[in-house]
Design brief:
The chain is α/β, with parallel strands linked by helices. It has two domains: 2-13 and 69-200, Rossmann fold (3-Layer(aba) Sandwich), CATH 3.40.50.1000; 15-67, no CATH class. Helices cover 39% and strands 15% of the residues. The protein contains eight helices and eight strands, in the order E-E-H-H-H-E-H-E-H-E-H-E-H-E-E-H. Strands 5-4-1-6-7-8 form a six-stranded parallel beta sheet, sandwiched between helices. A two-stranded antiparallel sheet has the order 2-3. Strand 4, helix 5 (107-117) and strand 5 (131-134) form a beta-alpha-beta unit. Helix 1 (15-24) packs parallel to helix 2 (36-44), helix 1 crosses helix 3 and helix 2 (36-44) runs antiparallel to helix 3 (49-61).
């Protein structure tokens, strides 16, 4: 069984990081609550909001990367996958550098270091040569096809709704926001444990 997994907001959880960073940058008030999606909506509603949001994202995925934590349940899933003999790949749409990042922090290196330090990549984790960062969503989808995944797990509906997404790949949508599960060309789950039960029993 060959399983591909997205990285941002699927393996790495930035909800607290986005909120705290937005407070530090004075983009939201100190009483603000909510995760990445709430921060995104609040920042984009400001004057020049789209650029401010892009700047904040660059900071999160670079300078603040080490403050992220693994999504609840992902480490249990990876362990179960290894016990089941599954072949794991991480395939992520991630540019090398953040938009408007004056520090020019390499986002791919930051993510790779974060995964290595937590045992997700290398050692007993996902083999280092099974990690792919792609510059565009289209290239990510082409990589999923080239790797010949049987399953792919992502937090973004848009990826699975792309016409180019390979029809033979089973699509598993990770939903963590507590809202009603969406319907679409995928199976939606409330967490990693549900995905593990579906794939490994």
């Amino acid at each position: 069984m060959r399983i591909g997994i997205d990285f941002d907001n699927t393996i790495a959880d930035y909800d607290d990081v986005f909120r705290l960073a937005a407070m530090r940058e004075r983009l939201v008030g100190e009483s603000f609550s909510g995760g990445k999606q709430s921060v995104r909506e609040a920042v984009r509603a400001l004057a020049g909001g789209e650029e401010r949001w892009m700047r904040l994202q660059g900071r999160i995925y670079g300078a603040f990367m080490q403050e992220a934590r693994p999504v609840d349940g992902v480490e249990r899933f990876l362990a179960a996958a290894r016990r089941a003999g599954a072949e794991l790949y991480i395939i992520s749409h991630k540019t090398e550098y953040g938009h408007f990042d004056e520090e020019r922090i390499n986002l791919r290196d930051a993510a790779r270091r974060w995964m290595s330090e937590r045992g997700i990549l290398g050692g007993g984790g996902v083999p280092e040569d099974h990690l792919f960062f792609e510059t565009t969503r289209g290239e990510k989808i082409e990589r999923i096809r080239a790797v010949d995944c049987a399953h792919f797990i992502d937090d973004l509906e848009e990826v699975f709704r792309e016409p180019a997404f390979p029809a033979a790949v089973a699509r598993h949508l990770l939903c963590r926001d507590g809202a009603a599960l969406p319907a679409g060309p995928f199976t939606a789950y409330r967490g990693w444990d549900e995905i593990g039960d579906a794939l490994f029993g």
